[in-house]
Amino acid sequence: MTEYWKCEGGFKQLPEWQSDCWIQVTKPNEEELNDLERRFGAPLDFITDAEDIEERPRTESEDGWLMALIRIPAKEIDDDGDIYFNTVPFAILVHREVFITVCYYKAELLDDFIRWTNRKSIAERQRYDLMLSLFLSTSVWYLKYLKQINVMMKAAEEALEDSMENEQLQLLMRLEKFLIYFVTSMRGNEVVMVRLKKHLRHLPYNEDLLDDVEVELQQAYATANIYSEVLERQRDSYSSIISNNLNSIMKKLTVITIILMIPTGISGFFGMNVPNQLENWLWAFPLIVLGTILISFIGYWIFKKQKLF
To answer: pTM for the complete prediction?
Structure first.
């Protein structure tokens, strides 16, 4: 789908392309890609690279095109209501009065960005200022999703305080994976931002906006690193707790096994088909049972005194 947007007190959709408008391409088909190449001379090899979910952030320059591929955050909810966070490629291409963005995946960022510009009645955005604004919105959405991840971490931690359920442990593992995606993607975006600064050095752009982008990106990157480190330490702590609980259970089972071996050994000794001078004594069986109980109790008392049970 291809849409044309013009910023005049917020972005308004246009019926067709105008100079210096924003060409927003989402999940393009082959016909739309060919139209971009035919009308604007857009390099299709760079655009199609954004379809690869594993594509890394980078910048390129070719025939007057300034191209940047970054990774933006995305969220999905499956049929069971489980939330999954990921990052997806997002391509930005600028050439003279042409500004194109291409995304092959669903993301809340773009629609929210347009609504925000209308709500704030943002003045006209020049090409490179629009690029920086999208970078800024990307960092803001990373922070939004990081807050949601933090809430999920706290909920899982509170649940694990009551019982060590596999479901909560698996949730922590998923959150750790999401944070790794975020940290890796933001590190790549930061490299792209450094390279873009060199390209923008001799071009018209809002320097204050660039500073805001750098601050938000660094804040999001630092926050993701902190959450990742906290989650890693939590996982190590829970692993130690589970190991200690297992050791405690095995110790108790060993003590119980030793105590149960006492009556087993005594009954086995007196149960052998060998004369022991007690065969005809009336009180032999009750005394053996009583002695067995007494010795077992003494063994239990010894283990209890040693805090092994």
So the answer is: 0.76
